[in-house]
Design brief:
- By secondary structure, the protein is α+β, with helices and mostly antiparallel strands.
- Helices cover 20% and strands 33% of the residues.
- It contains 2 helices and 7 strands, in the order E-E-H-H-E-E-E-E-E.
- Strands 1-7-6-3-4 form a 5-stranded mixed β-sheet, with no helix packed on it. Strands 2-5 form a two-stranded antiparallel sheet.
Length: 70
C-alpha cells in the first residue's frame, strides 16, 4: 500500500521526508538511516539526505514502505 505524504512547499529534502513519513524520529537520524537502508526515488537509488523531493515523486524503502509525495 502506498502512503501519501503531503507537503505545503515546492519540495522537501529526503531527510525531511523521512521524518515527515515517520520513518525516523529525528532529522539527526537521517544520515545514519540512509547509510543503513536502500532508498529508491522514482526507481533510482539515492542516499543523499539533501535530495529534493517534489509532488509526484515515489519513494520506496524495502521492508519499510512505499510513499508518494503529494
Amino acid at each position: 500500500m502506498m502512503k501519501e505524504i503531503k507537503i505545503d512547499t515546492e519540495y522537501i529534502t529526503l531527510g525531511q521526508f523521512l521524518k515527515l513519513a515517520e520513518v525516523i524520529q529525528s532529522g539527526g537520524m537521517a544520515k545514519w538511516f540512509l547509510s543503513e537502508y536502500e532508498v529508491f526515488i522514482n526507481g533510482d537509488q539515492d542516499q543523499r539526505r539533501g535530495r529534493k523531493l517534489y509532488a509526484g515523486d515515489k519513494i520506496k524503502i524495502p521492508n519499510i514502505g512505499t510513499f508518494i509525495v503529494v
